[in-house]
Design goal:
Layout lengths: L5 E5 L3 H13 L5 E5 L11 E4 L2 E4 L5 E2 L9 H8 L6 E2 L6 E5 L2 E4 L4 E2 L2 E2 L32 H9 L1 H16 L8 H4 L1 H7 L5 H11 L9 E4 L4 H11 L2 E3 L4 E7 L2 E6 L6 E5 L1 E4 L3 H8 L4 H8 L2 E13 L8 E3 L8 E6 H4 L9 E8 L12 H16 L8 E13 L4 H15 L3 E3 L2 H4 L3 H19 L5
Parallel strand pairs: 1-2, 1-16, 2-12, 7-18, 16-22
Antiparallel strand pairs: 3-4, 5-11, 6-11, 7-8, 9-10, 13-14, 14-15, 17-20, 17-21, 18-19, 19-20
Length: 469
């Protein structure tokens, strides 16, 4: 009788846990799954904490309900698989604002991550260039080409649309700049449409039409018990052995599979596995790949990351607008780049005592010096800037929390997906039982990370000989 498969998953974030659940569901019975997490906590950037006696997210706060094709997103499917569907809740206030000339203006509708499909609808925020978006008689983007989002939009619609709309919306997601971020990676639907359409407005409309949303259908969701409940349920349902505080330091090919070197240098533990999923950021993945796949390691290790800090304050009965929050263009000269009014946006978080939870995000790619402030100075600066933007002094916080995420958000420069594709193709050819998964390769957002982990698991199952299904 053949022994059970042994699969090692390096990384206990939602990507690695999604891979573990998929392996449990699809791999042959008896498959031994072990998740190695170098920290003492699972979930990666999913972390539910407590402030002033109430729950609050110290990392990602929500997920997309639909996938790019209009179907159910991968995380919603996973939530259903884990028996948590009844816990899904949606924002009760969806309107957000932009800071323009020091004041708040509603984010205009009809855009795709800030890129307008109707120039008239964005006029209150940004004026498109006078010669905006003329039909040049050819598609905007050649086949297989990639450009930065900023380069394309500046060329077609001018600087204001980028600086006041696109840049803050991309910055809210990636903490990066539109002039540096890959169109194909960050806005794949628009990139596909740009290979056919002759104008940018036409490409936006085509991309929106390709994935229609039912009127009134919620865009975002979260879990009433906090996103850490998703982490806990995935770990439990996977049936995996969870190894916390277990850093994987080396990875070596063996005649029958892989050897992992785990733990401190003085007391290393050697673990044998038939297959490995690397569900860690690009740089630690590159270190593990350096021995068995040096060329892939060099490619993967070139990816850079932005660091951010999330400052959450509990404010007693502040005067807040009926908004979910606001985004801040870099041209406004503020330290904060975005703010969320948790207890306004999410009805299930509203408190009878009138205490409001407000979070601000600090840190843009290339501006990491701003994160050198102490926690006290960060809180004071955020409090002062929020008061300035809102036009009224906010009350002093009764509690606050600063969560620093070093190297948290991948920065996808043009050509990213091609480089990752090349690295993965080389790995599949030489080492089919070794798979890469995670935000560093496939994109940010919980649904993308879940899908990335599940895809890696399927590749491992195929490489080892097929599923039990």
């Amino acid at each position: 009788m053949a022994r059970p498969w042994r699969v090692a998953i390096v990384g206990g974030g939602i990507t690695g846990l999604a891979a573990a659940v998929r392996l449990r569901d699809r791999a042959p019975a008896g498959t031994e799954i072990t998740v190695y997490e170098q920290s003492g906590r699972l979930g990666g950037k999913l972390r539910t904490g407590e402030l002033a006696g109430g729950p609050v997210e110290f990392g990602a706060e929500s997920f997309l309900m639909r996938d790019p094709a209009g179907g159910e997103s991968a995380v919603v499917t996973l939530v259903r698989r884990l028996g948590l569907a009844d816990a899904i809740v949606h924002p009760t206030v969806g309107q957000a604002a932009l800071v323009v000339d020091g004041g708040l203006r509603p984010v205009p509708g009809g855009t795709l991550v800030g890129v307008p499909g109707d120039l008239d609808r964005v006029a209150a925020v940004a004026q498109p260039a006078a010669t905006a978006d003329r039909d040049g008689g050819a598609p905007l983007l050649p086949p297989d080409a990639d450009v930065s989002v900023g380069a394309l939009v500046r060329d077609r619609l001018g600087d204001e649309v980028v600086d006041r709309l696109v840049d803050p919306m991309l910055g809210g997601v990636y903490a990066g700049r539109a002039d540096d971020l890959s169109l194909v990676t960050t806005m794949p639907a628009l990139a596909r449409a740009a290979r056919v359409e002759h104008t940018l407005v036409g490409a936006v409309r085509a991309a929106q039409a390709a994935a229609p949303r039912a009127p009134g259908a919620p865009v975002f969701g979260t879990l009433a018990g906090g996103l850490s409940t998703l982490v806990e349920a995935a770990a439990r349902e996977s049936g995996a052995t969870i190894r916390r505080d277990a850093a994987v330091r080396e990875l070596h090919r063996t005649p029958t599979g892989w050897r992992l070197v785990v733990g401190p240098t003085r007391e290393p533990e050697f673990v044998e596995a038939d297959a490995v999923v690397l569900a860690v950021p690009a740089r630690p993945a590159a270190r593990l790949l350096a021995g068995p796949a040096p060329e892939a390691a060099a490619t993967v290790g070139g990816l850079d990351y932005a660091s951010v800090a999330l400052v959450t304050m509990a404010l007693p009965e502040p005067e807040l607008p009926e908004l979910s929050g606001f985004l801040v263009p870099a041209t406004e000269g503020l330290l904060i780049k975005a703010s969320t009014f948790f207890t306004t946006k999410w009805g299930h978080l509203r408190r009878p005592d009138g205490l409001a939870l407000v979070r601000a995000s600090v840190g843009r790619y290339g501006e990491e010096a701003s994160l050198q402030l102490t926690d006290d100075d960060l809180v004071a600066t955020v409090h002062r800037e929020l008061s300035k933007v809102l036009g009224t002094p906010l009350p002093a916080p009764v509690a606050r929390h600063v969560q620093r995420w070093g190297g948290a958000l991948p920065q996808y420069t043009p050509g990213h997906l091609g480089r990752v594709g090349t690295a993965r193709a080389a790995l599949r050819a030489a080492h089919p039982t070794l798979a890469l998964a995670g935000a560093g390769y496939d994109g940010v957002g919980i649904p993308v990370c879940v899908r990335s982990g599940e895809t890696a698991a399927e590749e491992i199952i195929t490489a080892l000989g097929g599923s039990a299904a």
